[in-house]
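Is zinc ion placement plausible here? Inputs below.
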Amino acid sequence: MPPLTDQLDLDRMGLKPGGGSRFEIAVRVGEFVFGHQHYSLADDPLPVLVDASRTTSGFVVRVRAKPQIEGPCMRCSDDFGLALKIDHSEVHEPALDGELASDYVEEGKLLNVAALVRDAVGLALPPSISGPLDEHGQCTACDRTHEQLLELGVAGEQDVAELEQREQHAPDPRWAKLRELEL
Ligand SMILES: [Zn+2]
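Reply from A.M.:
I modeled the complex. Tokens:
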């Protein structure tokens, strides 16, 4: 496994202006919680490919990774995994413009790469972590089918507004009911 890294010291990478360096690190990402549902990465620490380059007065740090997020399908609550791709370039050019100073850089040189990668994974997540539907409106990647859910009294379709509401408030009581039925 590549070295576990939370923070990159930009000054100590020894890059000259115009120069660059590519290396692999492993980054702890941690869990994501939506409503009361927990999602985590299949590989955490996550292997991340870093391209760091020095500009005339600052840095550009590109992070790339292919995490897989796992947890309950937001439509049917069965186990589900979703492959993601992250490719983010973080610019840190405080000498050019204050607005180009990266929020992830502390003390002018320490890049909080753990926070950067975690946010990139969060931004790569779709509004609904759920499997693709077939023509009958059934989860194709999960075992539970739409008809079974209708029998259980759980709606199969959820729009984004409903999901957002669920994130803000207590989880839908139908989910608790569904879990009881599964037991
Ligand atoms: Zn599903």
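Short version: The radius of gyration is 21 Å.
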